[in-house]
Every structure is written in C-alpha cells, then in structure tokens.
From TrEMBL:
It comes from the Archaea. Gene3D superfamilies: 1.25.40.80, Deoxyribodipyrimidine photolyase-related, DNA Cyclobutane Dipyrimidine Photolyase, subunit A, domain 3, HUPs. It comes from Candidatus Nitrosopelagicus brevis. Keywords: Lyase. InterPro entries: Crypto/Photolyase_FAD-like_sf (IPR036134), PhrB-like (IPR007357), Rossmann-like_a/b/a_fold (IPR014729), UV-DNA_repair_photolyase (IPR052551). SUPFAM superfamilies: Cryptochrome/photolyase FAD-binding domain (SSF48173). One of its GO terms (molecular function) is lyase activity. This is Deoxyribodipyrimidine photolyase.
C-alpha cells in the first residue's frame, strides 16, 4: 500500500525538490505525467516539447536507479489532463496522501486545489524553495510601498544574501549598478563568439524526437537539430561552458544584437533553470567563485538571476489572476501572421523571429526591443502577444513569461512592474545592431513607403496614448519633442501608421 504519492511536474525536475523532502523509499511513490492538454494548450515550440519530455524521462530513469519507486505516464498512454491521470492512478494504488511542490503557474494551482475534494484524498502543497524569495516574503516586501520597482527589491535581496556586499552593508565596488558600462553594440570586426555547448541526443532523446515528429508535427518551430541539455550533468556542463567562455563579456554586450550571432555572450541557461536541471543558487554560487571576471559582468549577471528573475515571479504571484486581464492602452490589433513565420521585410523582425523558429531562443533585447517593441507600438492585443511568447521559447512558463510580456514589454499593467513602456524607434535598433544595413526599409527615413516602420509607429504610439503617458517624468523628452511637432507632421505619422497596419493585417 502506498502512503504518499509525490507528484512531480515537468518544471520540478530537481532531485531535492521540496515534495521529496520526507520521501520514504519503502512506503511512497513518485508520479510523473506527460499529458496532452499541457502539451497542446498553446502552440509550444517542438524543441520545447522535446526538452521537457526528454528531461522528464531522464529524471525518472535517474531517480529509479537511486531506488525511488516511480509511476511514469507517457503521452499517448495517459489521460488528457493532470486531474484525470491522477484520478486514474489513485484508483489503482490508493495513496493516503498526495504531496506536491507549489506549481509555477496559477492555472495549475487552481487545478491542484480541486484535487482534495474531487479525489477525496488529502493534498499537501509544499513551498518551492528553489527560489531565493518566497511568495510570502515578496508580499511582505510590497506592503506599504506606493510603487514596486525591481531596483529596490534587488538591493534588499543582495543584502539579505550578502552577495557583493561589503562589511558596512554597501555594495562592493561602490555601485549597485553597472548598466552604463553594459550598453555596447558589437563592433564590426569582433572575433567569433564561442557558441553554447551542444549536446548530442542519446537514445531517450532520439525516441522523444520521433514521438514529437509524429504527434506534434503542426506545432511551431524546427524540431532538429536538437542540442539542448536534458540531464543535470549536461546542464552543469552548459553552465561551466558559459562561465569559461562567455561570462566575462556578458555585461558589456548584454544589450547588443547581431544578425550573425544568435546567442552573443548570453548564458542560454533559462530553459534549464526553469525546469529544475539547474538551480539558481547553484548558478550564482559558481559565478561568485570566479574572481577574475569583470565586475560589470558579475553584477550584471547576478542582477538577472537574483533581481529580475525573482522580482518577476514575485509580481506574478502577487497580482494573479487579475494581472493577465488588464489592457492599459486598450490595444486591439491582431497579432500579424509573420510572427509565426518570420516572413516580413523588416529585417530586425525577420531575423529575431527566424532565429526563434530555428532555436526556440532569442535573447532578452530581441524579445524586448524587437518583437516586443513592435507589438507595443503597433497596438497588438496583449493576450495574443502573451500567447505567442508562451508558445515559441524553450524557457517559456507563464510565471516568467507573463510579467515580462504583459508588464515589462507591453505596459498593459499600467506600470505595476516597470516605470515606463520600452518604446523605441529604428534609431535605437540601428545603434544596437547590424540589422538595418540589410533591410528593405530605410532606418534614416521618417516618412513614406520605404521609411522604417518603427519610426512612424513609435510617434504614433505616443500620439495615441498621450493622455495616459504625458505626466510620466521618464517620458518628459518624448513629449516635449512631440509638442514641437507640426500638425502636418503628426497627420503624416498617423497616415503612414494606418496604411502600414492595414497592410500587415492582410499578411
Ligand atoms: C517579452 C519577454 C518575454 C520573456 N519570456 C521569458 C520566459 O518565458 N522565460 C524566461 O525564463 N525568461 C523570459 N524573458 C526574460 C529573458 O528574456 C530570458 O530569461 C532570457 O532571454 C533567457 O536567455 P538567457 O538564459 O541566455 O539569459 P541571460 O541573458 O544569460 O540572463 C541570465 C539569466 O537571468 C534570468 N533572467 C534574465 N532576465 C530575466 C527576466 N527579465 N525575467 C526573468 N528572468 C530573467 C534568466 O534565468 C536567464 O537565464 C522574457 C523577456 C521578455 C522581454
Ligand atoms: S530599418 Fe527599421 S525595420 Fe529595418 S531592420 Fe532597421 S529598425 Fe528594423
């Protein structure tokens, strides 16, 4: 007779996950489920499906070899959703209790909360202690604050964990932030950048690739070549490879974009962190061991993991479910079809989307300042944009995707997460990348058919949303320039934008 049934979800593949803390090998069992509804609720990239299923199967195999008793329900043999599959297994093994770590997504938590009543079994939900900040701690931090900002959260976390803090409680090196040094574009003759470590698919992964080809052929993205890590050991090698080959230059080129370099100096570790193949504490521990790395790279990287990643999760659980329903700018346009194909004349979009189709990866600035910026200034419906981001990236899970897209990128939350929308014209893209030199559009032109669409859409966005944004002190320069603009010029901007938006609707 089974006493505790420990359910391990696809993004909980950590050997010390909290649901296993009191596991007794002679009495308890682990249940892992591949279910169709989770694989199909958005148009997940095929590589993401391979990553998740293969990592789950490797995890199960590894735990089995360590003496854990595992029930593993494979796609095609399992019921459609978690609840049905769990009910099916409970009927067979009759556990006394279900134990599960707090899920990453609100939607899944709501499903879990129904189990006790539906299955008539007690359910214990334990804290996901892989994060640096608990949901309760984050809530406490928000209390009494007029506005929430990442920077002050990050200072609090640095002090709490004593990371890069001197004995007087001040930041080591005298600064909290090295952003000013971290805004370089890639020079023309920059040497080739070492690519992320590529892992050869083993028998399990090859089998999963064949299954995805058969069952999910219509899903987004290229299936092969598949090179992601699918085990803890491989993910650790990817971490070591990043630290050895790219970390030192991570800071300075963090914001750069380049059409020949999809990964630049980024870590490409989010997909492993988000499913538990790597742990945030393990990653920071390894990075902090390195004494000879540039301070702007170390600080810049720590800021992403200890600051942004934790802040984003905090915002998600603090504001859901209302968060996903807001639409501050009342954006109504449909997501253009080229988001799914990359088939557009705008070279920056074509490149960022094309790379996404191929790799299930784009780095932060491509997501924020190219595809995200376009969606913002073209007034695309937040729900459609969020669904796209949730589908196309290997690291996409709602807790991290939604605040980044809905809040940081689209400002659809009206400023809960960030202090201003990240709208930018072609000038910014040209400064930070080499996309414009090969584009059909002219980045220097402000009007007319061959003018860069980012140029007029940018001003059109501020014209349309003037009332909502003009009092924002961070947008003072934008609105003082807008005030100086002639009526005729404003009309031209509106016409060019209208024509362009009609044209892309037909695509
Ligand atoms: C519109 C949009 C959607 C996004 N969707 C996701 C998503 O679904 N999943 C996801 O993990 N990240 C998302 N991000 C954040 C960020 O773009 C990715 O974490 C990053 O690009 C992953 O690549 P990397 O591992 O090479 O990151 P690096 O640039 O090497 O950064 C190091 C690590 O810091 C963390 N990190 C950095 N920035 C953020 C951030 N803003 N939020 C959370 N963690 C961060 C990641 O774990 C990342 O692996 C999104 C950003 C935007 C603008
Ligand atoms: S000209 Fe405009 S559309 Fe073309 S690549 Fe540059 S920013 Fe993108």
């Amino acid at each position: 007779m089974t006493e505790n049934l420990c359910v391990i979800l696809a993004d909980q593949l950590s050997k010390d996950i909290s649901s296993l803390k009191n596991f007794r090998k002679d009495k308890d069992k682990i249940l892992m489920m591949e279910v169709a509804n989770e694989a199909r609720y958005v148009n997940h990239h095929k590589k993401k499906l391979v990553l998740v299923f293969s990592a789950m199967r490797h995890f199960a195999k590894d735990m089995k070899s360590k003496g854990y008793s595992i029930i593993y329900s494979k796609i095609g043999e399992s019921q459609d959703n978690f609840t049905q599959e769990l009910a099916h297994q409970c009927k067979k093994i009759k556990p006394k209790k279900i134990v599960i770590t707090h899920p990453g997504e609100y939607r899944v938590l709501q499903e879990i909360k129904k189990w006790e009543k539906m299955l008539n079994i007690s359910v214990e939900i334990s804290e996901d202690d892989r994060f640096f900040c608990t949901i309760t701690e984050f809530k406490k931090w928000t209390e009494g604050k007029k506005e929430l900002r990442m920077e002050s959260f990050y200072h609090m976390m640095r002090k709490k964990y004593n990371i890069l803090i001197d004995k007087d409680g001040k930041p080591k090196g005298g600064k909290w932030n090295y952003d000013i040094k971290n805004r370089k574009s890639l020079p023309k003759n920059h040497p080739d950048i070492p690519k992320p470590l590529q892992h050869k698919p083993d028998d399990i992964t090859t089998q999963v690739i064949a299954e995805i080809k058969k069952r999910f052929s219509k899903h987004f993205g290229d299936l092969e070549p598949f090179w992601f890590a699918v085990t803890h050991e491989q993910a650790k090698k990817s971490l070591d490879d990043f630290i050895k080959n790219r970390l030192d230059m991570f800071g300075p080129y963090e914001d750069a974009m380049d059409q020949e370099e999809s990964f630049l100096y980024h870590s490409v570790l989010s997909m492993y962190l988000n499913i538990g193949l790597l742990q945030p504490k393990q990653v920071l521990g390894r990075v902090l061991e390195k004494k000879k790395i540039k301070v702007e790279s170390i600080e810049g990287f720590i800021r992403q993991i200890l600051g942004w990643r934790e802040y984003i999760r905090g915002i998600y659980w603090h504001t859901m479910p209302k968060y996903s329903e807001t639409n501050y700018f009342n954006a109504k346009n449909k997501l253009p079809g080229f988001y799914w194909t990359g088939n557009t004349e705008m070279n920056c979009m074509k490149n960022s989307i094309g790379q996404t189709v191929k790799e299930a990866y784009a780095h932060h600035i491509q997501r924020l300042m190219i595809t995200g910026n376009f969606a913002l200034i073209a007034g695309i419906k937040p729900k459609e944009v969020c669904e796209w981001y949730l589908s196309v990236y290997a690291d996409a899970y709602e807790w991290v995707e939604l605040p980044n897209t809905h809040g940081m990128t689209l400002y659809a939350d009206g400023g809960i997460l960030g202090s201003k929308p990240y709208a930018a014209s072609g000038n910014y893209i040209n400064k930070m990348s080499n996309y414009c030199k090969d584009c059909q559009y002219d980045v220097k032109k402000k009007e007319g058919e061959d003018a860069c669409p980012f140029n007029y859409l940018y001003w059109n966005f501020f014209l349309k949303n003037q009332k909502k944004l003009e009092k924002n002190p961070r947008l003072w320069t934008v609105f003082s320039n807008l005030k100086k603009m002639s009526k005729e010029r404003k009309k031209e901007i509106e016409n060019d934008s209208k024509n362009f938006l009609i044209q892309i609707k037909r695509m």
